[in-house]
Design a protein that fits this description.
Chain A: This is type I protein arginine methyltransferase. The structure holds two protein chains of two kinds. By secondary structure, chain A is of the alpha+beta class. Chain A contains 14 helices and 17 strands. In chain A, the strands form four sheets. In chain A, strands 8, 9, 10, 12, 13 and 14 form a six-stranded antiparallel sheet that branches. Chain B is α+β, with helices and mostly antiparallel strands. The two termini of chain B are 28 Å apart. The chains are: A alpha+beta, B alpha+beta. Chains A and B meet through helix 1, helix 5, helix 6, helix 7 and helix 10 of A and helix 3, helix 6, helix 7, helix 9 and helix 10 of B.
Chain lengths: 547, 344
């Protein structure tokens, strides 16, 4: 899959790839309760601020953590050991010596956290440095000038930066250690369930993990601002819907949607994914302090054992090319039927699917006719598959030969798996003269509606939703909107066998559109279309595979 | 037969051969004018070398180079490719009336039987990203040792890898630092992965902040597969005061057997090719360089032990400030590092 090369250097190219300018003040998306909880080192009091907690330990228990730390000159690991040592002494009711020495907590076992998700351990970095007064910025030499002084200041800054870098790398080592321990814990519940994902052949896994496509696909999806913004906007604008609720995220990927939900105030989020990416999601969630709200489960949603019987909301980004190719919608429907409360909410809630005939002589000459003369050779043989396979391309709106036709709506609250294969009628009227009908394109609009009872018209357009004044939000993957990673599904008509005929503006055409799953490959999708102009005796038809 | 061979392969290897089946990659390669036209010129402008010769096309793809060789007067061309694309090549060759001159064989070079014990010329477009990633050079060398006649020719016969340093703040921010703040969340684990893979992308000439230097030249007549694992030193000299965020690499390809030597470059100073350039981001944000500063480095490349089509690349570097010019404002900067990459 060749991605557009955004010019490695061009700042102008790079600047709007991730357009986060429309943040619209989502910083306030935090739930109204504080999320970090600092449990006292010496008793079971809980604080929302690290310094308050340390002050409490000092005032009530005469334990001055900062003093011990600077007295012993503790490094990063030393700090962690000290915290865990104190916690384990307190837990087991053992006394803490009045003058703690390094020997007391020398044992490596103190690297292991005593408390699960101990916020204190992740805030050690932020504690105030015990600042030694460096007199390098000496004023005596004022006459010689600020230059040298600022030079030595800069030098000091780079020293400090180097230290910081070291601390960061130590922290990341530590995080890995913690992760290993926590992983073991998380694996346990699924080990006695039917899903046993840890039998992955090690080598495949590592290959998959480090391969280009691996990071690329997640980067592509996250940087698809149309997609990610729509989920974010819905979740953050409807915090009341999420506050205190239990949410299931089907196919959580990197965990972004789960974190949106947690940040919006969900009491509990269960994130399920069958891919190895979930290990990264777990780390992301942990690093962002949501490990106590979000539970990651690796496996198929049909097979993993959820820690709850019912959920209030299912959020999922399941949409595939042409909406249903390699889509996880079957799994989402299964999860809905099994876990969603009767009055629960699906996010997103509706999909409107569109088809339109296209005429695009430039594309045809660049990619189809091209093969007839390659440096003087005829490579017609290379054309073969082009008309058999549906392609994924972003077509300009100018290629549309007629207005799009809404051929199907899926309402996620009610859609059944059997609705995902269908045959529907479609029609259109040419809005310009064309030399040839080159094919059809298919796309979908995705709607996020905060109420189960709200009706979305079958011909509602996402791009008109905001102006309609209705609740919720929507995005389109059509040629009129900002391009998404889904682009559009393009089905090219095989015009190579006989010379195509032209048609005039205003001519009517109609036919049927069918989605089917081939018997030999349930992952693939077959799209068939029939079409007939009014003046024709007989209709034309062709099928395309997405694979 | 071939499918059985594929079945016996490691998945990654089978994927390599299968991934070439799709049209897109062939369309892209044929539309890479620099590549295709240089090969065409090297072959057609040297008809005197091809006339009545037996030619082997290693990894023939759609068969375009084989057909150029016939146009240049070759007596016989044998094209070998492991991918199913060879079925298309066969159709294409027939359509262009060259079936009697070109024999196409699907299979691995190491396993197929050629009708000629010796060939006069080997042509091959074997280069991958960073010259050596997923490259077929080892196959070409095998074919050379087994089939090439004494004094036979190889098209092309020389490849040189270059390195340089670039200013790339904005894009590095977008590709690497992006993971620090994804919609307000920290995605550091994915940043690690992003830093562990070189980026193949188009670099523009204006961001080169050092001179470029050749680091390795492969002479296809003499090199061996052992030469494909190497550790070579390089030195880059800064042209101006600037930030260097990444080191980049590209390669030049030469056809020295030609009457008038023909070559092309995949560097940022020339028309773009589908190989683009390979970008190695530094772990530190950047190295600050002043004119005349030297970046001394070591480039190490070796095929991965588990999957020989993957590359393990290490680059170490150290800045040597230009001593001849005093730079009073210059901060003491720690400018050295060791970078580890995996291309897979």
């Amino acid at each position: 899959m060749e991605k557009e090369a955004p010019g490695s250097s061009g700042s102008s190219d790079a600047s709007d790839i991730l357009d986060m300018r429309d943040e619209e003040g989502w910083e306030d998306a935090e739930p109204d309760v504080e999320e970090s909880q600092f449990i006292s080192l010496m008793d079971d009091e809980v604080f929302t601020d690290m310094m308050q907690m340390l002050d409490h330990c000092k005032a009530k228990h005469n334990l001055d953590f900062l003093e011990i730390r600077s007295r012993l000159g503790l490094d990063f690991y030393g700090n962690i050991k000290l915290v865990n040592y104190l916690r384990s002494q307190v837990h087991s009711g053992k006394p803490i010596p009045s003058e703690i020495t390094k020997k007391d907590f020398d044992d490596e076992k103190y690297l292991k956290p005593v408390l699960e998700d101990d916020a204190v351990l992740f805030t050690l970095d932020d504690l105030p440095e015990v600042v030694e007064i460096h007199d390098e910025v000496n004023v005596q030499d004022k006459g010689k000038g600020v230059e040298r002084d600022s030079g030595s200041l800069i030098a000091r800054v780079s020293e400090l930066e180097e230290e910081l870098r070291k601390v960061h790398s130590q922290f990341s080592d530590y995080r890995d250690t913690v992760k290993t321990t926590l992983d073991k814990k998380w694996e346990e519940p699924s080990a006695n369930g039917s899903a046993a994902p840890k039998e992955e052949p090690r080598d495949d896994d590592s290959h998959y993990f480090s391969s280009y496509s691996y990071n690329d696909i997640h980067e592509t999806m996250l940087k698809d601002a149309v997609r990610t913004d729509a989920y974010r906007d819905f979740i953050y604008s409807n915090k009341a819907l999420f506050a205190g609720k239990t949410v299931l995220d089907v196919g959580c990927g990197t965990g972004i949607l789960s974190m949106f939900c947690a940040k919006a105030g969900a009491a509990r989020v269960i994130a399920v994914d069958n891919s190895a990416i979930i290990d990264k999601a777990r780390e992301n969630i942990f690093n962002n302090g949501f490990a106590d709200t979000i539970t990651c489960l690796r496996g198929k949603v049909e097979e993993v054992k959820l820690p709850v019987d019912k959920v209030d909301i299912i959020v999922s980004e399941w949409m595939g090319y042409c909406l249903l190719y390699e889509a996880m919608l079957d799994s989402v429907i299964w999860a809905r039927d099994k876990y969603l409360q009767p009055d629960g909410l699906m996010v997103p809630s509706h999909m409107n699917m569109w088809v339109a005939p296209i005429a695009d002589p430039d594309y045809i000459s660049d990619h189809i006719a091209f093969w007839r003369d390659v440096y003087g050779f005829d490579m017609k043989a290379m054309q073969a598959g082009i008309h058999e396979d549906a392609q994924v391309l972003d077509m300009p709106a100018s290629t549309l030969a007629a207005d799009p036709f809404p051929f199907l709506q899926l309402s996620l609250h009610t859609t059944a798996v059997k609705d995902l294969v269908f045959k529907r009628k479609w029609s259109g009227k040419l809005k310009k003269d064309i030399d040839a009908l080159d094919g059809f394109i298919i796309w979908f609009d995705s709607f996020f509606i905060p109420s189960r009872t709200e009706v979305v018209a079958e011909d509602a357009k996402a791009e008109e939703w905001a102006a309609s004044g209705k609740s919720g939000n929507a995005f389109t993957t059509g040629p009129g909107g900002k391009v998404t990673h889904w682009k559009q599904g393009v089905m090219l008509i095989d015009n190579t066998k006989e010379k195509p005929v032209g048609h005039k503006e205003g001519e009517q055409l109609s036919g049927e559109l069918e989605y089917a799953v081939p018997e030999d490959n349930s992952r693939a999708l077959n799209v068939s279309l029939t079409w007939k102009f009014e003046s024709w005796q007989k209709e034309n038809s062709q099928s395309w595979k997405m694979r | 037969m071939v499918d059985e061979q594929m079945a016996g392969m490691a998945p990654s290897e089978a994927h390599y051969f299968n991934s070439y089946n799709h049209h897109g990659i062939h369309e892209e390669m044929l539309k890479d004018r620099v590549r295709t036209e240089t090969y065409r010129d090297a072959i057609l402008h040297n008809a005197h070398l091809f006339k009545d010769k037996v030619v082997l096309d290693v990894g023939c793809g759609t068969g375009i180079l084989s057909m150029f060789a016939v146009q240049a007067g070759a007596k016989k061309v044998i094209g070998v490719d492991m991918s199913t694309i060879i079925d298309k090549a066969r159709e294409i060759v027939a359509l262009n009336g060259m079936s009697d001159k070109i024999t196409l064989i699907r299979g691995k070079m190491e396993e197929v039987e050629l009708e000629y014990p010796q060939v006069d010329i080997i042509i091959s477009e074997w280069m991958g990203y960073f010259l050596l990633y997923e490259s077929m050079l080892d196959t070409v060398l095998y074919a050379r040792d087994r089939y090439l006649a004494k004094n036979g020719l190889i098209f092309p016969d020389k490849a040189t890898i270059f390195m340089a340093g670039i200013e790339d703040g904005a894009y590095k921010h977008d590709k690497i630092d992006f993971w620090d703040d994804v919609y307000g969340f920290n995605f550091a684990p994915l940043k690690e992965i992003a830093l562990a893979e070189p980026l193949v992308d188009k670099v523009t000439f204006d961001v080169l902040k050092t001179d470029s230097t050749p680091v390795l030249t492969l002479d296809l007549y003499t090199c061996t597969t052992a030469d494909l694992a190497f550790t070579v030193p390089f030195t880059l000299t800064a042209r101006q005061k600037d930030r260097v965020h990444a080191l980049i690499s590209w390669f030049d390809i030469e056809f020295t057997a030609c009457h008038t030597p023909i070559s092309f470059t995949t560097g940022p100073h020339a028309e773009g090719t589908h190989w683009k350039q390979t970008v190695f981001y530094l772990r530190e944000d950047y190295v600050l360089v002043w004119p005349g500063d030297k970046i001394h480095g070591m480039l190490e490349n070796k095929p991965n032990e588990q999957n020989k089509r993957d590359l393990d690349i290490k680059i170490s570097y150290k800045l040597e400030p230009n001593q001849t010019k005093a730079e009073p404002k210059r901060p003491a900067q720690i400018s050295q590092g060791e970078l580890t990459f995996k291309m897979c």
